[in-house]
Write a structure and sequence with these properties.
By secondary structure, this protein is mainly alpha-helical. The protein contains 7 helices and no strands. The chain is 77% helix and 0% strand.
Length: 194
């Protein structure tokens, strides 16, 4: 089986697998990275915010997120227009596109932005404990912005993970169904993470 998939048996079937992997990867990058980035770039330039975005040290990320937000707004407006004109198929297709963009933005917020905010919040709250000041944190951010953001994101992710584990443990011990947004029950068959 592996010999045929890798082309070790002399057949050229593996070239088909290579073609599909390269084609789908290219399509994925084109749809989910290239298009939102360029939509965001043209809109940032049109709004006159290019200098502010460049000063943030994260030009590519902010530009791509702006592109995703603008695509979501356009899809919502087109969906509303299609429902007013009573185009059922167009409305359904635009609604599906909006759901894809919305889920992408939610993933960015829940896995990217929220842990980053938690990490910065924990760092600011613990400055006195480490005998540091905001000037020290500003200097470290200016010297290595990517590393600083990654470390704060990592600390925030660990915090969110342990908080969720604590809520699960508390729920298991107390036997109560706690009314929290992040009240995961992975063992339930009705669990839906979207």
């Amino acid at each position: 089986m592996f010999e045929q998939m890798l082309g070790l048996d002399g057949s050229l079937v593996f070239l088909e697998h290579v073609f599909w992997v390269v084609s789908l990867n290219t399509l994925f990058i084109l749809v989910f990275a290239f298009c939102p980035y360029h939509v965001g770039h043209y809109s940032v330039v049109a709004m006159g915010l290019k200098e502010h975005v460049e000063a943030s040290h994260f030009e590519g990320l902010i530009t791509t997120i702006v592109g995703y937000i603008l695509l979501a707004v356009v899809l919502v407006l087109c969906h509303a227009l299609a429902s007013l004109i009573k185009f059922r198929r167009s409305k359904r297709l635009l609604g599906l596109g909006y759901v894809v963009v919305k889920v992408s933005l939610l993933v960015v917020v829940e896995i990217g932005v929220f842990p980053l905010i938690c990490g910065w919040w924990l760092d600011i709250c613990s400055l006195e404990m480490f005998d540091a000041t905001l000037k020290d944190r500003k200097a470290s951010f200016q010297s290595a912005p990517g590393t600083t953001m990654f470390l704060h994101w990592l600390v925030g992710m660990v915090y969110v993970f342990y908080f969720a584990a604590f809520i699960l443990l508390l729920r298991e011990v107390s036997g109560l169904d706690l009314p929290l947004r992040y009240n995961f029950n992975f063992s339930s068959f009705s669990f839906d993470n979207v």
